[in-house]
Write a structure and sequence with these properties.
Ubiquitin-like (UB roll), two-stranded antiparallel sheet, elongated, alpha+beta, 2 domains
């Protein structure tokens, strides 16, 4: 006998604006996604979960949602046009629960999460550098650097700027690249022909 699933899966879209009253346009959806908001398919371990269960699972999917401490509303789109009006889903006295939402909306209904306490930032989060980060060679010295930091780093073959706000992994990587760059530069300098003291004196008094 096949046992029914204990989990519940549904699509959500976290908005950034407390006053949002229409579905976001495509360009806004891209901005939301880049800010780690926007649309996600969320799996809730318990299909009978209460508000706290729903809150914790949503916060595990949307890091920025934690700042609201549960102060959010659920909305759904009404028919009509590209940017459709959003209709508030009534919140019962015990808060949104999974059984309540399951009975109220269809499985294909996208649920919009609207912040109540404050607007959520659209800033793009910093991406940490790891051992798995793809690399490319810097054109001046052919040394590998992480692609995600290609535009961030402004350095020449004589040095690299290490930012104190970077993670330890990033600092170690930046310093290792700096050491290799310095070694390349020192090798180049040593290979240059030296000018004798007499030659310097001669050129200075010619």
């Amino acid at each position: 006998m096949i046992q029914p699933k204990e989990s519940w899966t549904h699509d959500f879209c976290l908005l950034s604006n407390t006053e949002q009253d229409k579905t976001p346009l495509q360009e806004s959806l891209v901005a939301l996604k880049e800010a780690e908001l926007g649309r996600k398919r969320v799996v809730f371990p318990s299909k009978n979960g209460n508000f706290e269960h729903m809150k914790q699972v949503l916060e595990s999917e949307y890091e920025k949602l934690k700042s609201l401490d549960g102060a959010f509303e659920l909305m759904r789109a009404e028919s009509g046009g590209t940017s459709r009006p959003l209709k508030l889903i009534f919140m019962p006295s015990d808060g949104y629960t999974i059984p309540y939402i399951r009975d109220l909306v269809g499985s294909n209904t996208l649920l919009y999460i609207c912040p109540m306490k404050s607007c959520l930032s659209l800033d793009k989060p910093l991406q940490p550098v790891t051992n798995q980060s793809p690399q490319t060679n810097w054109p001046k010295c052919s040394l590998p650097i992480p692609i995600i930091q290609f535009r961030k780093h402004s350095f020449t073959c004589s040095g690299i700027e290490v930012n104190e706000s970077d993670s330890n992994d990033e600092k170690e990587l930046e310093r290792s690249v700096f050491d290799r760059v310095r070694l390349v530069q020192e090798t180049k300098d040593e290979s240059k022909p030296s000018v004798s003291g007499s030659a310097v004196w001669w050129f200075g008094h010619k």
